[in-house]
Structure to design on (202 residues):
């Protein structure tokens, strides 16, 4: 019989299911994730909430644990930088930006990574939340581009953009492929380049 101890991958791979946050701001966190990514509570109690925006029983869990301490210099310490949610196309993604901006919820960072266009928000606890769409419209193609392209290797962070300039370009009749191409060319760079670090809220 062949020794199988060196097999490093599971034969059947599990799918990513959810992320859990400890929180001192349970109600604010529930409101934020419902506004930004459509996550609604399946269960919402005094000590926690379990939220979903699809068929899963939950995608984000929020635990209001006793004796939690406020973080120190959270935006500049190791750990989770952000979670991400993906829209099906450019128009849904940009519509979501306009909807949130009208409520005063704006991203702190916007990047065209090549395989995605992405806006980064910050939840009430200071955690990052990426809202993106796949520019290839096909995960197999975007994965291949990340793996094979010199462009991504040279600049994996991507190009900064101002979302208001994207809104204006769409109003002027540019199609999303042209907007994406121009963003990659640096045509929509914001007046001030933000840090990729999470802004410090504590």
């Amino acid at each position: 019989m062949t020794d199988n101890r060196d097999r490093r991958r599971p034969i059947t791979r599990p799918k990513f299911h959810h992320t859990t946050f400890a929180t001192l701001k349970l109600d604010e966190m529930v409101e934020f994730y419902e506004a930004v990514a459509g996550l609604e509570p399946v269960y919402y109690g005094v000590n926690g909430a379990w939220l979903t925006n699809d068929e899963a029983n939950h995608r984000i869990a929020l635990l209001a644990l006793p004796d939690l301490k406020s973080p120190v210099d959270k935006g500049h310490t190791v750990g989770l930088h952000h979670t991400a949610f993906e829209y099906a196309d450019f128009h849904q993604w940009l519509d979501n930006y306009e909807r949130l901006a009208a409520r005063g919820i704006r991203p702190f960072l916007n990047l065209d990574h090549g395989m995605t266009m992405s806006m980064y928000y910050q939840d009430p606890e200071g955690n990052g939340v990426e809202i993106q769409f796949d520019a290839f419209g096909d995960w197999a193609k975007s994965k291949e581009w990340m793996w094979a392209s010199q462009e991504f290797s040279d600049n994996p962070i991507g190009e900064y953009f101002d979302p208001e300039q994207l809104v204006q370009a769409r109003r002027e009749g540019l199609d999303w492929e042209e907007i994406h191409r121009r963003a990659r060319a640096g045509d929509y760079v914001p007046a001030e380049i933000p840090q990729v670090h999470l802004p410090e809220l504590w």
